[in-house]
Every structure is written in C-alpha cells, then in structure tokens.
From TrEMBL:
Record key words, sorted: DNA-binding, Sigma factor, Transcription, Transcription regulation
Protein's name according to its UniProt entry: RNA polymerase sigma-70 factor (ECF subfamily)
PANTHER family, sorted: RNA POLYMERASE ECF-TYPE SIGMA FACTO, RNA POLYMERASE SIGMA FACTOR HI_1459-RELATED
Domain RNA polymerase sigma factor 70 region 4 type: 101-152
Family: Belongs to the sigma-70 factor family. ECF subfamily.
Length: 162
C-alpha cells in the first residue's frame, strides 16, 4: 500500500493540473483526479513501464474526463426530452447506430487527429484551449481539426461504398 501512496503523492498534482487544462473546473478536476487514481489502482497490473507513470495516469484521466462528458450529455438529453417529443424506437436505433459508427471511425484515426476531434466535439474546447493542451498554437489546432474532419469524411465515404 505504501507504493500506491507514493504514486499518489508524486503524481496527483500533475494529474490535477492536466484535468484543469481540460475542464477549467477545480471541483470537477479534483473529483476526476480521485477517479483517475481509483481506475489506476484497479488496473495497475496492466502498467508495463513502456511509458512514464505520469503519461499513463494522464491517459486514464483523459478517459475519465471523456466518460464524464458523455454521462453529462446523456443526462442533458434526458432532461430536455418530454413525453410528447419522444422519437420512435426505430429513429432512436438509427441514431444510436450512426453514433456508434462515427465513434468507431474516430477511434481508428491516428493521433493527434483523434484527440483533437474528441476534445473539440465531446469536450467543447476552443481551438486555443486544444492548442494549449497539445503544447501547440491555436492555428495548429484548427488545421488539425480540419484535417481530422477530412479523414472522417473519407473513411465515412469508404464505409458507405461511395
């Protein structure tokens, strides 16, 4: 247990700062930092020293943040839906299938395209914020996002047989 305490004391501040860059909310960053270390403890046996511990923890933090964003989107959708505006089960199925297909295509993109797309679409971050996270500038983020969209279009057309 002492080793886990040492990992937490060495990396918690770095993970917190990374999450602050993503969400700009101290309370949420603190909550997600705790979630990150919880997930890290659960999967510590999968850490294989191929990357630095801080990089591994920040990857877990990023995924925790994306999960948080997805949960919030679902909650907001449910809050704004009323009984009179329910769509048909068929329409909901088509929507969910399209969404799954889109996420599959995004998942296949190489970095940094995948991360820029997710930060922009799921995270709702500005190009300036994305540039800061990637240690680049705003223009780089804009160009990368544009190129990622072009790659999505190409792959989407390939999947549709067009």
């Amino acid at each position: 247990m002492g080793e886990l305490d040492e990992i937490y004391s060495n990396y918690a501040e770095e993970v917190f700062k990374y999450l602050m860059c993503l969400c700009h909310n101290a309370d949420l960053s603190e909550e997600l930092t705790q979630e990150t270390f919880y997930q890290a403890v659960k999967s510590i046996d999968r850490y294989n020293d191929e990357c630095k511990m801080s990089v591994w923890l920040c990857q877990i933090a990023k995924h925790s943040y994306y999960k948080h964003l997805e949960r919030n989107k679902k909650q907001q959708r449910h809050m704004f839906q009323d009984d009179s505006s329910h769509t048909s089960p068929e329409a909901e199925f088509i929507y969910s299938e399209d969404k799954i297909a889109l996420y599959r295509i995004i998942h296949l993109l190489e970095e940094p395209y995948k991360e820029v797309l997710l930060l922009r679409i799921l995270g709702g971050l500005s190009f300036k914020e994305i540039g800061e996270i990637q240690l680049r500038n705003e223009n780089w983020a804009r160009v990368t996002f544009y190129r990622a969209k072009m790659k999505l279009r190409e792959r989407g057309q390939d999947n549709n047989g067009q």
